[in-house]
Amino acid sequence: MTDENKIYLDYNATTPLEPSVLSAIQDALRDAWGNPSSSYAAGKKASHVIKRARTSIASMIGASSGDIIFLSGGTEGNNMVIHSALEYFHGFNDQPDCKPHVITSNLEHDSIQLPLLKLKEQGKIDVTFVPASPDSGAVTAEGILQEVRPSTCLVTVMMANNETGVIQPIEDISKTIRSRNKSRLSKKLPRILIHTDAAQAIGKIKVDIDELEVDYLTVVGHKFYGPRIGALFVRDPETVTPLYPIFYGGGQERNFRPGTENTGMIAGLGEASQLVKDNLFFFLFNVSKVRDYLESRLKETFEDNIQFNGKFDTSERIPNTCNVSFLGRGLEGRKILAAVKKLQASVGAACHSDAVSRPSPILTAIGIPHDVAMNALRLSVGRYTSKNDIDIILEDLEVVVKTLKKDF
Ligand SMILES: O=C(O)CC[SeH]
After folding, report:
1. Does 141 score more than 50 pLDDT?
2. CA-CA distance, 193 to 172, in Å (whole number)?
3. Residue 313, Cβ neighbours under 10 Å: how many?
4. CA separation for the pair 135, 315 (Å, rounded)
5. What sign does the dihedral 99-126-354-15 (CA atoms) show?
6. DSSP state of 342
7. 322 included as an active-site residue
8. CA–CA distance from 184 to each of 94, 125, 129, 191 (Å)?
9. Cα(393) to centroid of ligand 1, in Å?
10. Cβ < 6 Å from ligand 1: which residues?
11. Dist. CA 375–CA 347, nearest whole Å
12. Which of 98, 158, 221, 367 is most buried, by the most CB atoms less than 10 A from its CB?
């Protein structure tokens, strides 16, 4: 339950800070205010806090501390991966007219999709958006592989979609691309770098960089009860995986990401990561129980007058997400959200929420008809959402849907 007796079911948009995360931030701001680059006590205190946080984040995803680069959030991390892949390509290939090629999905967050479209518009790259299947809401490794060409230098696919919750086959994609890389080496073709944006996966499902076999992985604090900063996993950035700074300055983060460190927020990200490391399966079990209860209550209340948009027999979902359409005229998702008294949710990605009344491009991309997509709600439960919250939401929705139907 949040303010004004509202019930928040938009945890994929952002999450509140866990109390211990807030305490870690406050403690660091109060006690570790020194410049981490300073050699005296105040600086050392700050650098110690950062070191401890880096260790927690690395441990959460099965990485080494040296593989974690702090930055401002998911958007910066995703842009840095694209920038580094292109720098790597140009360092490898000296033919000025040969453009780097990037393969991605048609489901990506704007912080992947838009930089790629911009670079394409500028004539700097070629990009292939591999369509997700309407039968699974996911891409396939084969679908990615068949788009590989000699100039391909990056494959980037999100680990789980923020609107449908569908988990993408990152392990399969990595294994397939790594196998192809072996044959490319002998042909003196660029290595294909592999990235996944794990923003919607961390804290909800197991994220292990050795199982995933990715070169890069984006970590976004505010999706797992942490602060609004992020980190980028880069597999041994000094020697194995290319990483190039987007901007230059004081040399922090081994010159990969300069700027005086945000010690307070880094401390918070470290605490949020430690909580995930220590409690993932407790969190996962709880949210899946409540999400499944939500979907059973929706089915019980609305019977065949709803459609779930992320449930497929051939793919898995993150355990907290329910994308549901209310079938029938006059039941647009935006109208329902404007009329409910308790529910706080979204029709899709928060970064699109101010867009004109249009169906989610993610839902239409996986073949959901326009009118059904227009009637969708994205409901994403949190660690502490209760079944009682769900019962209140169902009452709220039942009244509103009945009223909107009658008024249409
Ligand atoms: O899906 C969301 O709401 C967060 C990314 Se814009």
Report:
1. yes
2. 14
3. 6
4. 9
5. negative
6. S
7. no
8. 17, 20, 22, 7
9. 21
10. 12-13, 109, 162, 346, 349-351
11. 8
12. 221
